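User: What would this chain look like folded?
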Amino acid sequence: MTMDFFTLNEKIFIFLNKTIANPILDFLVLWVLIPLFFLLGLVPFLFLFSKDKNKKILALFALFSGFFLYWFGHSILKPIFHVPRPSVLFENVRILIPWHESPYSFPSTTTMLAFGLAFPIFFHYRKAGSFLLILALLVGFSLIYSGFHTPFDVLAGILSSFVFVFLVDKILKLEKLN
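Assistant: Here's the prediction, encoded as structure tokens.
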């Protein structure tokens, strides 16, 4: 028996949003993971103060990518796709944080921002970039766990960020920093 993509999306969402939910994880998401989100922007920002010209260019690329992708997803993609939030799609969604930005959830613009900041650093500076990718993945997890996005929303945010950053990186032909 096969499972369609939307059923799989719902099953993974229910597992992450309800099945594994507990007070310790609630605390970690609210008071540890979400506050750590600022580090995704802090690392490229600190690269701006490097003496290395390539790090400065990379920092600008990362900051531009993150914020452009957030804007593009929010202003262009969400109004096109009109996919409602999980609380509309599924029954009894556990909402950990009363977020409200847009009635639409696809793609996750927060995920696009996080990976738009992380991928450029990762492509050129593996050590710092790996740390940022882990943080970005934790952001994606937090968005699903808190009831704000589905796995499909987060996956679309990751993939669109990867494609954008990869293509722009190839066009700019930035030098590797490793």
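Residues 22-172 form one domain. If you want, I can go into more detail on any region.
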